[in-house]
Amino acid sequence: MNWLADYLRDSSVKDLNVDGGDRLVIHSQILARKPMLQAVFNSFHHTFERLDRRFLTASGLRVELGAGVAPIRDSYPDVLATDIVEGPHLDRVVNAEEMDFPDHSVRTIFGQNCFHHFPHPDRFFNELVRVLPVGGGCILLEPYYSPAAAFTFKRLFSTEGYDKEYPSWETPVAGPMNGANQALSYIVFKRDRKMFEQKFPKLHIVHEEVCNNYLPYLLSGGLNFRQLWPDRALPLLTGIQGALKPFSRVLGLHHVIVLRKEA
């Protein structure tokens, strides 16, 4: 499968250093020429908004961590777009493990495929307890733990692993992108859920759902691979995806976890 991934890799990223300063620029260029992928990110944004309005009640800032090249702000302008590195279209640099926000000042923290890149999840959770008021929360979109996700994510990226049996929440990351474990949300919120609840009793897991747009995501090629489905046939693909919704827990590639701070 490695040869297939290499063959399908977008020529723009074949020699890309994922921890280098030009990653966001190149990914922005790739996203600009992929309407199908733009639609996938927009659907993620709308999912974040829907769950925020449904489960969170506090007032305060709305902040996205690891916003990358497709910030939620593109769909909802009030959401602050931040990342661990500078980007030409981002609002500011923020370290998820040392956030420079006052106590109890943030209604919502969003994370779109960034949580598994945090080297010390405990520090991030402690920061959530500090910056969130009661009724505020964190919404994370992460690689799922379905059979299809486990098969796919193990083979997509040479710079990231997918190890559901890894003994620790912390991984030996070598940079902002290199060395992450894409199974981290499974480890923390599924395998070690009781440990999470004991360590962070103020953070309640109030919702989890599987994203049902895995076909457009996969066939768009994402930000690193060639697109395999024509944009003009996206309505047909959307129809096929709708018919497959009952199988999302087997075929889904991403899921969303909602944490809410309780008194």
What does this structure look like?
By secondary structure, the chain is of the alpha/beta class. Helices cover 36% and strands 16% of the residues. The protein has 10 helices and 7 strands. A 7-stranded mixed β-sheet has the order 3-2-1-4-5-7-6, with helices on both faces. Helix 4 links the parallel strand 4 and strand 5. Helix 6 packs across helix 7. The termini are far apart. The model has no long low-confidence stretch (mean pLDDT 95).
Mean pLDDT, nearest integer? Answer: 95
Shape: globular
Query: What distance lies between the first and last C-alpha atoms, to the nearest angstrom?
Result: 48 Å
Q: What string gives the helices and strands in order?
A: HHHEEEEHEHHHEHHHE
Radius of gyration from CA coordinates: 18 Å
Poorly predicted spans: none
Give the quaternary arrangement of the chains.
single chain
The percent range for strand residues is: 15-25%
Number of strands: 7
- Helix proportion range: 25-40%
Number of helices: 10
The strand line-up of the biggest sheet is 3-2-1-4-5-7-6
Q: Describe the biggest sheet?
A: 7 strands, mixed
Helix/strand-derived class?
Answer: alpha/beta
Core attributes:
alpha/beta, 10 helices, 263 residues, 16% strand
Record the SSE blueprint:
Layout: H1 2-8, H2 23-32, H3 35-55, E1 61-65, E2 80-83, E3 92-93, E4 106-112, H4 121-131, E5 137-143, H5 147-156, H6 184-191, H7 193-199, E6 203-210, H8 214-220, H9 234-243, H10 248-251, E7 254-261
Parallel strand pairs: 1-2, 1-4, 2-3, 4-5
Antiparallel strand pairs: 5-7, 6-7
Helix pairs in contact: 6-7
